[in-house]
Amino acid sequence: MEVISATDINKGYSMKEAMKSIEDFYNYKEDSYISPDRMHVEDGKNTALLMPAFYGNYYSTKLVGVAPNNSSKGKDTIHSLMILYDRETMVPLFMCDGIAITSLRTGALGGLGMKYLAKNDAKTLGIIGTGTQGWSHLQSAMVARDISEVHIFNRTKEKADQFKLKAEKEFPNVHFHVSSIEDLVKQSDIIVTATTSPQPVLPELSPLDWKGKLIVGVGSFRPDMQEITDQVLQEADEVYVDFNSALHESGDMIRAKDLKPNLEESLNLETIITEEHFPSSPENKTILFKSVGAAIFDLIVTKSIYKKLYK
């Protein structure tokens, strides 16, 4: 069994490749797949997740531990391992850092949402939450759109400042600002919420302040977590999800269904890509794309890495 570190993945594989692997999966898939809802086990505020998937010649499992209080202890919030197996024999082929896979596939999903759902001239990005997913969505935004300006917000300003310094080195031609959350929303065409907050993180603003904006919600993955305010959930003209499981896994979408009973008809990423079902006049609408991820996306990205680096 091959074993690879997150550092080696990041050196040998790009966000652009991750986004293409998911697009190709939808555009060219020939086999059916199995991707059950993730298994959640709650331990106080902590969560253990098990995510198996089957597709083509491969089977995969991802084990994830989420400890929201770790940030106050100077430790990462999420720890994870990813294993890819031969589907027929169940022999393990490849083990890697699950955080790197989650970062790539979640960023890729958000990036595809930005590519297909944001208004044509979207150039400014707002990132709320400066952890791993905030960074991965910065990377995918740069692939998906011609981003020239980025606004950053984190409850701990020191972390926002550190994120800004890192981003300026990685993307020297882009202007970065540490902003208030109100200014971030008003100045950004695309807004990413990438926190583990159980309470909404977006501000209450005039409905007009949300028009022409795409909100990409990626942080909440449990029914008791809600990043998006009721105002935005109610005002959103169009709502999309990455995978149908988002409708009952995320507190954002559970609450949205309370406010909009017809939300079960939300379109998912497969429909967006394969049927080209894009929002009309996005410059005049408030659009929400909610992503929770799914095991099949972990498998697709991991298989792509394995084939590139080892086959």
Automatic annotation (TrEMBL):
Pfam families: OCD_Mu_crystall. One of its GO terms (cellular component) is cytoplasm. SUPFAM superfamilies: NAD(P)-binding Rossmann-fold domains. Transmembrane segments: none annotated. InterPro entries: NAD(P)-bd_dom_sf (IPR036291), ODC_Mu_crystall (IPR003462), ODC_N (IPR023401). This is Ornithine cyclodeaminase family protein.
